[in-house]
Amino acid sequence: MTTPVRIAQISCGPEYSGVQQEINEAARAVNGEIFFPDIALKDIMRDFGEFGLDVRSPDLKLAIARAKALVDGRVDADAVFVATCFRCAEAAIVRNELRRYIHTHSRLPVVSYSFTERTTAGTLLTRMEALTTIARRRALLAREAQEGLTMGVDSGSSTTKAIVMKDNKIVGTGWQPTTEVLKSAEQVIGHALDEAGVRRDEIEATGTTGYGRFLVGKHIRADLVQEELTTNSKGAVYLADRQHGPATVIDIGGMDNKAISVQDGIPGTFTMGGICAGASGRFLEMTAKRLGVDITELGPLAMRGFSAHVPMNSYCIVFGTQSLVNALAAGSSREDVAAAACHSVAEQVFEQQLQEVDIKEPVIMVGGTSLIDGLVYAMGELLQTKIMVPKYSQYIGAVGSALLASGFIKDG
Amino acid sequence: MAKIFIYPATSLILSDLVARYGHTPLSSAIAVRERIQTAGIESVPLQITPEEPKKGLRWAAVEVPSGVRGRMALYGPMIEACDAAIVINDADLAFGCMGCARTNELIKYLIREKNVPRLDLNYPKNEEEGVRFVAAIKRFLAEMGGGE
After folding, report:
1. Most buried residue, A292, A345, A349, A403, by CB count within 10 Å?
2. Can you tell me the ipTM of this complex?
3. Last residue of a domain, one of A136, A159, A192
4. By CA distance, what is A14's nearest residue in B?
5. Residue A315 forms part of a structural domain
6. CA nearest A119 in B: which residue?
7. Out of B67, B97, B102, whose CB is closest to A17?
8. How many CB pairs under 8 A join A and B?
9. Do B102 and A20 touch (CB under 8 A)?
């Protein structure tokens, strides 16, 4: 058993929300160990005063002092988990500033989260897994080139993808909607192997990612089973050829969204989630269906429309769909409605998630939704930057898995 | 003898003073002790489960953060049960500290609304104020029928 990753918890409220046990359990599941940085009472007011954010809640003052102790090196940790109550404005300000402060002034990987009493270990697992991976596997994450013959499988909530790579090149791809997890995985693997012209027993190492990663990983005896925050970051900077320096990776997925701030190919801070499916690729699928077009046609349709012509707020998928239906009934063009849907999803991600990571150029959009050019355009407008969409961006998790899996090829 | 809610509810000094005069202090220690002595609950460190924020809906609406509602599940019943209250404002962290400012605002308001005998004091800043501070608490406790 390897030594657990020591995760410093900086928080306000989880013990009173009844979710501390869930946080501990999520950490334990990925061989992490939650601890609270110990600081002297006299240091709390000094550190809080020096930090300069004059909040009223004593637990937040303590959180600030703990963050300073970590940054100053008075307390040792491998990673930091910042957690405060959802819907608390004072805590949200502190959470965001501490995440930024730790990220800027230390090399500690940090993730922040706002919980409710309904937060479960399952919800936190992917975040904790990414956090411990960054802390534990820096050597693996430093890999910049794929070697040998490897395969990556991304078992996502909407689609399953497989990639076969050989000597730093993609030689086979497979893609299809996720139905039965293992059946879908087998089919995309078969397709990718056929395209690559190789047999399965020739593959030297495999990796899995996505929601079905554990099941598929066990089924194909994967060498690497890795959450998608890590694989997508690696895949994005690899495909975009931005492995050095900063980058921001945005993946608007079928079920949730990821925004990852990357430095030299290693994720630093990230957010994952979304208030509602209205801020996910699922809403765009529904929009395409309602407009009577294939999802692949939604992007070009949106590029011919003007989002400002249609009021749409997809904060909630139900109300977003209602706006869509109302706009069509009022005579809006399909182009304008498609553009408004793309703008609305981009706006939700911008408002809810991109505020929690430091946006640094280049901004790389990945995942299936990055092929919807209307969405990429809307995101670029909101961020006032040109967004990069690398080739094979829809296979990003599988590419990252295949790349990282080559670190498991046995010599000889 | 009276049941006296103390604020900060975590203050051991205040709790001890109230108990010395024969009253029952209503404090964090009592609420937490009840939970950690309840068999079958496994929710470290305070044995507060996700059920507590739901019980807290009695005092704070669903849009109020779960941490506030969870705290209110501890303090709300004590405020309802108290015959009197001692409130120390701007206390030093070492004297007693309650972590959430929003919960603290609500607790103080609910005590005020309950309209029971209440001693409202500012935390002393020097020795002279300290002497007056302790004397005021002793006087209040004595007036509530207590004696050392």
Report:
1. A345
2. 0.94
3. A136
4. B67
5. no
6. B50
7. B67
8. 99
9. no
